[in-house]
Amino acid sequence: MGEESTSNSKPDDNVTNNNGSYESPVILNVYDLTPANQYTVWLGFGIFHSGIEVYGMEYGYGAHDFPISGVFEVEPKSCPGFIYRCSVPLGRIKMPPSEFQAFLENVASEYHGDTYHLISKNCNHFTDDIAQRLTGKGIPGWVNRLARVGAFCSCLLPESLQVTTVKQLPEYHPCTEEDGTGSMSSANPHEPTESDDGDQDKHLLSPPVGSCEVSFIREVQR
């Protein structure tokens, strides 16, 4: 597609200026959800997943069955289960990494895994929202075109596609202390308890090394 472009971000693209300020490119990484995209993309349609890359990590939004954040981070261009297609530079931001992390944790509370919807609130809606907030520029229209068509006439979409979501199963762990002395629990997911629901400042941390490549983002108290 003529609208696609590629970008190879490098660690030194994230700059600390002489005055101590920080700067990072904002990049949209796009993935194919199905090999059929190789044929349908030339007709202007495709089924895509996307993530936003900032400060050397990529952030996406996926579905799960729990009323907590579905926002997760992965190594750029390597989201598990999808086929990397291309990258699109969207601009640059000037904020400290800590400020960006606080921004992301706040946004995470707006994107719970159990509110994911293929047509009205999917991974591409998330990346478009993040891009707009950070740069004032949305993602290219072709990335989420199928959802917009489905919003007008869902009968045009195959039944199997209408119920498909980008699933990412969170694994729950207690928070580690700042000094790293906290211990990890079992990697088995569990249903949130009543006390879990009462604690709005939840953490979904990286599972033990080798068990999963997806790390869920904690959401701040609202």
From TrEMBL:
<comment type="similarity">
    <text>Belongs to the DeSI family.</text>
</comment>
<feature type="region of interest" description="Disordered">
    <location>
        <begin position="1"/>
        <end position="20"/>
    </location>
</feature>
<dbReference type="InterPro" id="IPR042266">
    <property type="entry name" value="PPPDE_sf"/>
</dbReference>
<keyword id="KW-0378">Hydrolase</keyword>
<dbReference type="Pfam" id="PF05903">
    <property type="entry name" value="Peptidase_C97"/>
</dbReference>
<feature type="domain" description="PPPDE">
    <location>
        <begin position="24"/>
        <end position="161"/>
    </location>
</feature>
<protein>
    <recommendedName>
        <fullName>PPPDE domain-containing protein</fullName>
    </recommendedName>
</protein>
<keyword id="KW-0645">Protease</keyword>
<feature type="region of interest" description="Disordered">
    <location>
        <begin position="174"/>
        <end position="210"/>
    </location>
</feature>
<dbReference type="InterPro" id="IPR008580">
    <property type="entry name" value="PPPDE_dom"/>
</dbReference>
